[in-house]
Automatic annotation (TrEMBL):
One MF annotation (Gene Ontology) recorded for this entry: alpha-glucuronidase activity
Gene source species: Penicillium frequentans
Keyword Hydrolase among UniProt keywords: yes
Reaction catalyzed: an alpha-D-glucuronoside + H2O = D-glucuronate + an alcohol
Keywords (A to Z) from UniProt: Carbohydrate metabolism, Glycosidase, Hydrolase, Polysaccharide degradation, Xylan degradation
Family per similarity comment: Belongs to the glycosyl hydrolase 67 family.
Enzyme Commission (EC) number: 3.2.1.139
Active site, per annotation: 283, 363, 391
Name this protein carries in UniProt: Alpha-glucuronidase
Gene Ontology BP annotations: xylan catabolic process
Cellular component annotations (GO), alphabetically ordered: extracellular region
Pfam families cross-referenced by the UniProt entry: Glyco_hydro_67C (PF07477), Glyco_hydro_67M (PF07488), Glyco_hydro_67N (PF03648)
Amino acid sequence: ESGIDGWLRYSALPAEIKAAHRGYSKIVVLDKSETSPVYTAGKELQKGIKKILGQSVDISFDLSDDLSNSIVVGTTVAFAAGGDEEIATLKEDGFWLNTKARNDCVHILGQNDRGALYGAFEYLMRLAQGDFAAVAEAYNPSAPIRWVNQWDNLDGSIERGYAGPSIFFRDGEVVKDMARIAQFARLLSSIRLNAVVVNNVNANPKLFNETNLNGLRRIADTMRPWGVRIGISLYFDSPREFGGLPTSDPLDPAVNDWWKDITAKVYEKVPDMIGYTIKANSEGQPGPLTYNRTLADGANMFARALKPYGDAVVMYRAFVYNHHLEESEWKNDRANAAVEYFKHLDEEFEDNVIVQIKWGPIDFQVREPPSPLLANLRKTKAVIEFQVAQEYLGQQSHFVYMAPLWKEILDFDMRIDGKPSPIRDIVSGERLGWNRSGYTTVLNIGSDDTWIGHHLSLSNLYAYGRMTWDPCSDPTSIIQDWTRLTFSLDQTVVDTVTKISMDSWPTYENYSGNLGIQTLCDIIYTHYGPSPGSQDGNGWGQWTRANNHSIGMDRTVATGSGNTAQYPAEVAAVFENIETTPDDLLLWFHHVPYTHRLKSGKTVIQHFYDAHYEGAKHAQTFPLEWAKLKGLIDDHRFEHVAFKLKYQAGHAIVWRDSVNYFYFNKCQIPDEKNRVGNHLWRIEAQNMKLSGYKVVSVTPAEAASGG
Ligand code: BDP
C-alpha cells in the first residue's frame, strides 16, 4: 500500500465482524448539488460502505421514500422538513449522529453542510474500526478556526518540506492537475479541519498575477465540495514590488486602495476565501515597522480590505523578531519579543484581526513553556500555531508523535487574573469571550505518496485534527484509532504503534536536548542534526548560554531577561523561583552550574549524560518493536518504516555522542558511569571496509569520535 489514502483506507472488515452488520436499504442525501459537501458525504458513505462492508448501496434524494434501514445525511435544516427528531444544540460545523433513529435509520445531520460531511466521516471511521455500537450524540468543535498552513512556494518547493514537491504549485504557477488537492481536502475534512492557507508565510507577490488568481479559483473549487476553504499568505511589500507603487506604507491611501482592489480581484475568483495570513517584520520580511508604523496599522490595513467579505479574517503572525542583532544586543531575549510587540496593541486591532501565536515563545523546540502572549491579549483574539511539520523534531526522518506535547501545552493553566485559564479554554474563546479563535498548524505535506515523508508521522496530522476539535482528547486513544484505520485492527499492530508513538517525544527529547535547553540542533539553517555549538552568539537568539561552568538562559526578573514577568502572576512566580520551576524547563528559565542538583538528585551534567544514553538506547528499541509487525501489515509500508526507524536509531547515537562530548569538553566533568568518549555501539569508519567513499571532515567536530 502506498499510504495515499492515509487513515481513510476503509479496509474491508474481517468476515466475522462484517457478519454482525445488517447492511442498509439506501443512502438518502438531502442535497442534490454536486458541489455541496452534503453530496460529497453521500458519495463518501457509498464508497466507504462498499469497501468496509462490501455492500453496494444506492443513493436517493427523496426524504419521502420509505426510510427504513437507511442512512440519512444532510443539514438539520434540510431534515426538519421531513422529521421531528429532537436534536441537541449544535455549534457551527457541529453534527448530530444518531445510529438508532426511528425505522432503524442512521441520521447524520450537520449544523451546516460541512458538519454533515464530518458526521459521515465519523460514522465511516467507526464502521472501519468494526465499531457498530449505537450512538445518539451531538458533536461540536471546541473552536471555529481549525486551519492548516502549508509553507508552499510558487516554484514548487516547500519551506521545511520533507515529502517531495508541492501539490499546489510548480514553476511559478498553480498546478494544472487538481487530483492530489482533492485527496488532500478529503483528508482534512475527515478530521474536521475547515481551511488551508496554501502558500508559504514567506510569501511571493506573484501569487496575484492573473494566472495564479485563476489557479487559486481552481484550488478553491476543488476543495469546496469537501468543506475546506482556502486562504493565502501575503507579502507585505506587494504594493511596491508587485503593484509599482512607490511605497507600501499602511497609512498611505493609495496603498490601502491597492489592497482593496487586489482583494476585490481575489474575491471575484474565490468568494468564500477565509482571509489573509501575514508574516511581517520577521526574519528579513518587510512590514509596517519598515514604514515606521505599528503592527496594528499594518494588520488593520488588511482588515479594512477584507471587511466587505463576510467572515474573512486577517491572521497576523506574532512571530515578529529581528535576527540581525548586533553583538551588543545579544542580551535581548527573543522569547520576550511577541509580548513586547503585541501586548500594548491589544486595543488597537480591528475586529477581524486575529493574532497567530506559535505555541512556545521561540520556535517549535522539543520543549518550551507556552507562549506568554497567549495570556496577554484580552480584546484581540488569538489562534495558537502548532507545527505538524517536524522541523526541529527530526524532519520526518525521526518520528515524534506530537499529540502529548500539544496536550501539555493546551492543559497548561495560565491563571489569568488568578482564575483557571487552561490554554485550551483561551484559544477556544471561552475564557475571554472571543467569538473567532482556535488553531492553526504549519503543515508540510508534499506530493510523496506518504504525504509527509514518513508513514508514522502522518499520525500527527490526524491527531492535530482530533485535538483541535476536542482538546481534551487522549493522545493514546487518538493514536490507537489512527493505527486501526491506517494499518490494521490487529491488537499487536495497535499496541506496537501506540508504544513507539507514546515513547517517541520523551525519547527524542532525551537524545536531542534536555531540561528545557531546546533542541540542540544546527540552529542557523538546517534545524536538523546535532550542533550544540551553533546555539549561542548569533542573531537567531535560541541561546543555551553554555560556558565552561554553567548553562541555561536566565529569564528571571531578578537577574535575567525578565521573561518570567510576562506570565500572569501565579505562573510568573513558579518560573521565577528555581525551586518551583519544573526540571524539564529549568534551563529555559535559569542559568545554573553544571553541578546544580535537580529535583531528581542528579546534577545537570549527569542528567545530560544519562538522558542522552537513555534516549539513544531507547531509540534502538523502535526498529525491534516494529519488526514484530512483519507480515501483520503490508510489506511496502512495513519496509519504509523499518528503514526510517533504523536510520533514527543510528542517528540517535550520533546525537548522543555529539551532545555529550560537546558538554564534556566544555565542563570537563566526567560521566559517573564513564561512558562519554567511549562511543558505545558506534562502528568507526576506520574499522570498516569502505569502497566508493571519500574522506570528509565531520561537522560538528564533536560528532566525530576523534573530535
Ligand atoms: C522558522 C522556520 C522558517 C519559517 C519561520 C516562520 O525555520 O523557515 O519561515 O519559522 O514561522 O521556524 O515564519
